[in-house]
Write a structure and sequence with these properties.
The protein contains nine helices and no strands. With 240 residues, it is mostly helical. The longest helix is centred in the C-terminal third of the chain and has 72 residues. It starts with a helix and ends with a helix. 21% of the residues are buried. About 7% of the residues have low confidence.
Length: 240
């Protein structure tokens, strides 16, 4: 599936809800307005998170997008029930169930985003640890140590959520509160100050390369001074 098709699929829900004001029975839209507004808000927020991840990783987060497509599908089902073309009064239980289905799809999409952000963060942390000294990283990014530990904790919590399914939503909600916006803000800080870190590493490597040369120069200088002193002493003894 192309990026253009994915983008079209992701905007499907919002456009359907917008058109619903024209094709739906006004009294029915008013009746379900709170649920519609809540679902639209939830959907738009998840879509924003998907796009945020995509712009960072330069890849499409298919699991979350598929969940959003399912939410969009349920939105169409809701609009069909509320449409003027549907002569019968809509089955309120079925409408409510479709709302629940769409909300659950958005929740699952948010879980997919949490998984992806944790994996992305662990990968970035590992890459930085392989290239730079820990002290340099902490000096450049004061929260580096905190998020290094938090991401390892988050990975364990995600694994635990598979064993204790009744706690899954609570676990993911807690992780989400830390990842968004705190972790995203931290990664913005890393990206903004990365050049400064690279320059510091280059200076350190330069002085590491220069250090043996300086030490060797001091040795030669010491030998030269020592040799001159010995030669002067020999000459003094011979003259005496």
């Amino acid at each position: 599936m192309s990026r253009q098709n994915l983008a079209a699929a992701m905007s499907q829900f919002s456009s359907v809800v917008s058109r619903s004001k024209l094709i739906s029975r006004p009294h029915q839209v008013k009746k379900y307005k709170h649920q519609l507004d809540r679902l639209v808000s939830h959907y738009n927020h998840v879509e924003y998170l998907v796009k945020t991840y995509e712009l960072r990783q330069y890849e499409v987060l298919l699991p979350a997008i598929n969940e959003l497509r399912y939410a969009g599908r349920r939105a169409i089902d809701i609009m069909a029930l509320l449409s003027k073309e549907n002569e019968a009064e809509p089955n309120s239980e079925k409408v409510d169930q479709y709302f629940v289905d769409a909300e659950l799809a958005c929740i699952r999409a948010k879980h997919d985003i949490v998984d992806a952000l944790v994996l992305y963060g662990l990968s970035r942390i590992q890459s930085l640890n392989e290239k730079y000294d820990f002290d340099e990283l902490v000096a450049a990014f004061p929260k580096f140590n905190y998020f290094s530990k938090f991401l390892l904790f988050a990975r364990r919590e995600i694994q635990r959520s598979r064993e204790f399914r009744e706690e899954r939503n609570e676990i993911y909600s807690a992780l989400y509160e830390k990842l968004v916006p705190d972790f995203l803000d931290f990664m913005d800080e890393v990206d903004a100050n990365f050049d400064q870190l690279v320059q510091g590493e280059r200076k350190r490597q330069y002085f590491q390369t220069l250090s043996p040369q300086i030490s060797f120069g001091w040795i030669l200088g010491g030998l030269g001074i020592g040799g001159s002193a010995i030669l002067a002493l020999i000459q003094y003894i011979w003259r005496g």
